[in-house]
Amino acid sequence: MLLGFFSSKSAYFYGSVTFEPWRRLWKSWAPTKCKIFLWLATRNRCWTADRLANRGLSHPDKCPLCDQEDESIQHLLTTCVVAREFWFRLFAPIGLAGSVPRQNEGNFANWWRKTMKRVEKEHRRGVNSLIILSAWIIW
């Protein structure tokens, strides 16, 4: 490829963004609106306080669930103490209590990937759907 030469092919191959959990997301049994929400959440595109502040719009000072930290979608789904308690109560009965997000997790997509490695292959689609629906409930 020559420098300064643009084609749609060069934009496709060099400018594309990959979405690692796409198969887990789109092949699940969750409703489409929940899938779209989680797709936006993994890309930090939900209208939380951090994004509202960047645009100069009014926003809550702290997380509406825990009132301890600044609100972001990553905080709401992984590091918020209320969300972590929710994940624990959800995962404990199915033997995944060790997969609850840690206090310093910070990235929902990474946590989701690590959690799915602990699930047997025949149960993955169901657990994926459970995670998507649970994230929707937290939101």
Record the SSE blueprint.
Elements: H1 8-15, H2 22-26, H3 32-42, H4 49-54, H5 73-79, H6 81-91, H7 108-117, H8 124-138
Helix pairs in contact: 3-8, 5-6
Characterization of this structure:
By secondary structure, this protein is mainly α. It has one domain (21-138). The chain has eight helices and no strands. The protein has helices at 8-15, 22-26, 32-42, 49-54, 73-79, 81-91, 108-117, 124-138. Helix 3 (32-42) crosses helix 8 (124-138) and helix 5 crosses helix 6. The radius of gyration is 17 Å and the shape is globular. Mean pLDDT is 88; it is low at 13-17.
Tell me briefly what this model is.
This protein is mainly α.
Helical residues, percent: 40-55%
Which residue ranges are poorly predicted, with pLDDT under 50 across at least 5 consecutive positions?
A: 13-17
Strand content: under 5%
Q: Which whole number gives the mean pLDDT?
A: 88
Number of spatially distinct domains: 1
Strand tally:
0
Helix tally equals: 8
Distance between the termini: 45 Å
Order of helices and strands: HHHHHHHH
Query: What summary fits the major beta sheet?
Result: none
Query: Which value, in Å, is the CA radius of gyration?
Result: 17 Å
Structural class estimated from helices and strands: mainly alpha
Characterize the overall form.
Answer: globular
